[in-house]
């Protein structure tokens, strides 16, 4: 979107480019972090592209700190916010412990029952992950048309057990747990139910909506099972921008390339059907509920077996290659560049 600069002299028109909905473009984020980041000897992992949590030295243990908002979903937003934050902490090999929430609620649309429902969802999700609601902030906010909840989570991990997104090594195999795309399937079914009823049955849409809890968006069990089963060089949960963006973030953080087999990527039939209805690419829809794991090839089978024993589907979908080879998607028609999404495909539903 562009507009004329109203402060520029007449006859010397300039245009201002507005950023699209979604994550800040990677090149802009890198510029800002390099410009405003400040080193600290106790900050083991600080703000950098592809890393979703800060890691701070606290003696013999590391404190892992994470923040993430929920802006798309309105139904069960409290459940969402706990789990997406816990996922990123677990991806560092840490145990999620203390959760804080900032609730920004729309004026003239919020009653006390709405607020209590969100609190109840947060408390239930914290209980299921053995976490504690430790604080936060709640307010009615001018200018919003839907609730926004921002989570803040602290976890801890032994100093010799944490992993990072940037730990991917050339030759590593890439495993994805479950299938695409748990969160997108639930989100589409919940937010677009009335429109979807013209094509899908109520029972079908209810099953899709329940993806939030079954198979569920938490990858904490996935991360814990993988860490116990073998050597894990990196973990990352694909969220906004989908699996493709998650893979790009891993590659950029680790300074490697990736070769991904399209046919090996598991996709839920429900996800495929809902995405097809709205002409969305399953590789680019918000994908919480899956975990990306990079490990040596010798550990791939043990990790997949351990995940299976825990009731978690997993598949090897490719491998890390040299940076010069780039990130490619191997298809039945040959290879092409792994797609990129400047914003999550789901955002198109709210235009």
Short descriptors:
2 domains, 7-stranded mixed sheet, alpha+beta, 60s Ribosomal Protein L30, Chain: A, single chain, Phosphoribosyl-aminoimidazole Synthetase, Chain A, domain 2, 351 residues
| Percent helix range | 25-40%
SSE order: EEHEEEHEHEEEHHHHEHEHEHEEE
By CATH, the topology of the largest domain is Phosphoribosyl-aminoimidazole Synthetase, Chain A, domain 2
The CATH homologous superfamily of the largest domain is termed PurM-like C-terminal domain
Quaternary organization: single chain
The structure class reads alpha+beta
Helix segment tally = 10
Top-tier CATH class of the largest domain: Alpha Beta
Average pLDDT score: 92
Rg for CA atoms? 21 Å
**Strand residue content:** 25-35%
Shape type: globular
Largest sheet, spatial ordering of strands: 10-12-9-13-11-14-15
Structure write-up:
The protein is α+β, with helices and mostly antiparallel strands and 351 residues long. The protein folds into two domains: 52-158, PurM-like, N-terminal domain (60s Ribosomal Protein L30, Chain: A); 165-350, PurM-like C-terminal domain (Phosphoribosyl-aminoimidazole Synthetase, Chain A, domain 2). The chain contains ten helices and 15 strands. The chain has a seven-stranded mixed sheet, sandwiched between helices. Strands 3-4-5-8-6-7 form a six-stranded mixed sheet, with helices on one face. Strand 6 (95-106), helix 3 (112-128) and strand 7 (132-141) form a beta-alpha-beta unit. Helix 2 runs parallel beside helix 3, helix 4 packs across helix 6 (202-209) and helix 7 packs across helix 10. It is globular. Mean pLDDT is 92; it is low at 1-8.
């Amino acid at each position: 979107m562009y507009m004329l600069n109203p402060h520029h002299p007449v006859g010397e028109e300039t245009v201002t480019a507005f950023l699209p909905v979604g994550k800040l473009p990677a090149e802009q984020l890198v510029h800002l972090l390099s410009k405003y980041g400040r080193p600290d000897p106790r900050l083991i992992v600080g703000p950098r592209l592809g890393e979703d949590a800060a890691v701070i030295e606290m003696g013999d243990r590391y404190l892992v700190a994470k923040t993430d908002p929920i802006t798309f979903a309105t139904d069960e937003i409290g459940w969402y916010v706990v789990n997406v934050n816990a996922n990123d902490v677990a991806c560092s090999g840490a145990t999620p412990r203390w959760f804080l929430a900032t609730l920004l609620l729309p004026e003239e649309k919020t009653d006390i029952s709405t607020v209590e429902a969100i609190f109840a969802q947060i408390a239930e999700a914290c209980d299921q992950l053995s976490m504690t609601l430790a604080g936060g902030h709640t307010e009615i906010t001018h200018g919003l048309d839907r609730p926004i909840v921002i989570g803040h989570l602290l976890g801890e991990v032994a100093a010799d057990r944490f992993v990072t997104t940037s730990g991917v090594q050339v030759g590593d195999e890439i495993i994805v747990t479950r299938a695409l795309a748990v969160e997108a399937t639930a989100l589409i079914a919940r937010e677009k139910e009335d429109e979807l009823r013209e094509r899908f049955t109520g029972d079908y849409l209810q099953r899709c909506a329940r993806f939030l809890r079954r198979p569920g968006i938490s990858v904490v069990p996935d991360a814990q099972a993988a860490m116990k089963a073998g050597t894990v060089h990196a973990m990352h949960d694909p969220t906004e921008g989908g699996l493709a963006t998650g893979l790009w973030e891993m590659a950029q953080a680790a300074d490697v390339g990736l070769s991904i087999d399209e046919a090996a990527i598991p996709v839920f039939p429900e996800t495929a059907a809902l995405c097809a209805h709205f002409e969305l690419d399953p590789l680019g829809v918000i994908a919480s509920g899956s975990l990306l794991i990079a490990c040596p090839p010798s550990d791939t089978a043990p990790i997949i077996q351990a995940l299976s024993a825990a009731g978690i589907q997993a598949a090897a979908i490719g491998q890390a290659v040299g940076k010069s080879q780039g990130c490619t998607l191997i298809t039945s028609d040959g290879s092409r560049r792994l797609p990129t999404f400047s914003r999550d495909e789901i955002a198109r539903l709210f235009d």
